[in-house]
């Protein structure tokens, strides 16, 4: 494999595929190189058990249907369809006591009102406020086309006093936010459980915005999954990229980048090939992989190398996949129709769980996310069965297989306590340990903590897709706006590459060169 192309995209996760689509749409000659046998990165599915389709990594996608980037690709034209569970999500307070979030906001409000009358009104008011600020916030966060215009739009919608209150609200720890919003623990658990989709403890600054965003998306547009498995989203992205003219290759490992006169001139592969690059390289990789493994050391300024020593990865995870011969026998009826279940901890238990992770202890009763994928999409397994999974965070800095196996057993025990007879109904079980997930890197590209967000993501002075090398862009979740399946990281990298050819692009590049310390 030799020759030259306008752009090479390293890695065919969903962000890399989005970048390839946008560059090919602009008429660029694009080559995508993926080291794995399959495209998709963390958006893949497979038949691990006979007749049961399993999402290998990510599964439900609340941000995908509302993402301005993914909506703009018209993936429905390439076969993508969405499925929705009867109950969007549910949280278990105890094994026999849960709370559901339903597609109808009034039904959710009525459910919360059973636990405290004031929470029914509070829920509907929270949703009304979300819908007032939703579009400009999503455009600012994951749209990226006109952030200043959208900020002005948000200011007009809220006014200065209310906008100030909103900014304060979005910085709150999740536990503080939940107490300010709701009177009952049941209502608070809906928000706190959604905080568990990230990597921040519920008492950490900024954890509230994750819980609030996902809770409002759940009520507004749901937690859908692709019909047929997560891999169907990848198939649509691949088909669209090829239709636009991009070339995609699997089983090709990029071993390094050649840098001449401050720009990437070529991409080298492990099998000895060299591909000359005329315009840009988009790296859908982790930040440490890009700066420590792919770039030559003399191309990375000392300041960037020092900052990289302080880069904080997100915690590793353990995921257990299940094939269940019957509907899961939950004690709490609210859990039975839910596509996503928050399980294993009440309000105080979430604080305990976060403290155990911070201390490096393996939780005996871990909080977890549990997916009932056949409930969401009946095509996933035979009628009357359930294709399911559960995952939880490993303690900070712990990644060994023995700890992962112990945590997987604790996951089983928590599920059994909430659904007696679950273990006897299993016809298949598979554990994915951190060592089994190295090919996709980390789950969200680095911690979501304040010190590594926005202008600090992935590194101070290199917030966003631009790097310390001209025509090289970071297009993975390591860059702003970070983890989740929304395509914004890949889109921002592609747009930066396209802008680089203009006058403003060259001025912006000079600014980044100064900041990076070259």
Write the layout of secondary structure elements.
Blueprint: E1 4-10, H1 14-25, E2 30-33, E3 45-49, E4 52-55, H2 68-71, E5 82-83, E6 87-94, E7 97-101, H3 105-113, H4 117-143, H5 147-170, H6 174-181, H7 185-195, H8 207-220, E8 225-226, H9 231-243, E9 247-249, E10 254-260, E11 263-269, E12 274-283, H10 287-294, H11 302-308, E13 317-324, E14 338-343, H12 347-359, E15 368-372, H13 373-376, E16 386-393, H14 401-418, E17 426-432, E18 472-474, H15 488-499, H16 503-516
Parallel strand pairs: 1-2, 1-12, 2-9, 6-14, 12-18
Antiparallel strand pairs: 3-4, 5-8, 6-7, 10-11, 11-12, 13-16, 13-17, 14-15, 15-16
In short:
By secondary structure, this protein is an alpha/beta fold. It contains 16 helices and 18 strands. The longest helix is centred in the N-terminal third of the chain and has 27 residues, at about 115-145.
What does this structure look like?
- This protein is α/β, with parallel strands linked by helices and 518 residues long.
- A hairpin with a 2-residue loop joins strand 10 and strand 11.
- The chain has 16 helices and 18 strands.
- Strands 1, 2, 9, 10, 11, 12 and 18 form a seven-stranded mixed sheet that branches. A seven-stranded mixed sheet has the order 7-6-14-15-16-13-17, sandwiched between helices. A two-stranded antiparallel sheet has the order 3-4.
- Helix content is 38%, strand content 19%.
């Amino acid at each position: 494999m030799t020759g030259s192309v306008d752009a090479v995209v390293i890695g065919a996760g969903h962000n890399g595929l989005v970048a390839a689509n946008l560059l090919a749409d602009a008429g660029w000659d694009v080559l995508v190189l993926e080291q794995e046998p399959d495209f998709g990165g963390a958006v893949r599915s497979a038949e691990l058990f006979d007749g049961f389709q399993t999402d290998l990594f990510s599964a439900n996608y609340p941000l995908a249907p509302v993402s301005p980037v993914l909506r703009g690709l018209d993936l429905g034209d390439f076969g993508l369809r969405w499925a929705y569970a009867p109950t969007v999500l549910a949280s278990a307070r105890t094994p026999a006591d849960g709370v559901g979030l339903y597609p109808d906001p009034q039904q959710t409000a009525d459910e919360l009102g059973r636990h405290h009358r004031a929470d029914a009104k509070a829920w509907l008011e929270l949703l009304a406020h979300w819908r007032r600020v939703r579009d400009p916030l999503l455009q600012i966060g994951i749209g990226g086309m006109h952030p200043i215009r959208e900020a002005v739009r948000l200011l007009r919608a809220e006014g200065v006093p209310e906008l100030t209150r909103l900014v304060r609200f979005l910085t709150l720890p999740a536990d503080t936010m939940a107490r300010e919003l709701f009177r009952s623990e049941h209502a608070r658990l809906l928000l706190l459980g959604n905080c568990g989709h990230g990597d921040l403890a519920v008492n950490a600054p900024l954890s509230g915005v994750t819980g609030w965003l996902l809770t409002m998306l759940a009520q507004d547009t749901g937690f859908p999954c692709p019909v047929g498995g997560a891999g169907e989203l990848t198939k649509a992205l691949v088909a669209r990229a090829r239709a636009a003219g991009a070339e995609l290759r699997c089983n090709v490992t990029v071993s390094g980048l050649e840098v001449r006169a401050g720009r990437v001139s070529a991409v080298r592969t492990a099998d000895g090939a060299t591909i000359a690059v005329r315009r840009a390289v988009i790296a859908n990789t982790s930040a440490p992989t890009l700066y420590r493994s792919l770039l030559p050391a003399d191309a990375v300024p000392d300041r960037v190398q020092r900052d990289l020593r302080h880069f904080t990865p997100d915690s590793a995870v353990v995921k257990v996949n299940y094939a269940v011969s019957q509907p899961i026998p939950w004690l709490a009826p609210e859990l039975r129709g839910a596509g996503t279940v928050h399980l294993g901890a009440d309000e105080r238990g979430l604080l305990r769980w976060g403290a155990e992770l911070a201390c490096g202890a393996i939780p005996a009763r871990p909080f977890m996310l549990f997916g009932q994928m056949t409930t969401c999409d009946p095509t996933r397994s035979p009628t009357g069965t359930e294709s399911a999974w559960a995952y939880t965070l490993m303690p900070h800095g712990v990644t060994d297989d023995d700890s992962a196996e112990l945590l997987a057993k604790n996951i089983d025990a928590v599920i059994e306590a909430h659904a007696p007879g679950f273990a006897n109904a299993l016809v298949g079980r598979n554990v994915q340990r951190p060592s089994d997930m190295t090919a996709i890197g980390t789950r969200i590209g680095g911690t979501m903590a304040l010190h590594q967000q926005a202008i600090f993501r992935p590194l101070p002075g290199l917030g966003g897709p631009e790097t310390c090398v001209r025509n090289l862009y970071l297009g993975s979740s390591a860059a702003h706006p970070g983890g989740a399946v929304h395509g914004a990281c890949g889109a921002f990298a592609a747009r930066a590459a396209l802008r680089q050819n203009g006058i403003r692009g060259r001025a912006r590049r000079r600014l980044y060169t100064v900041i990076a310390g070259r």
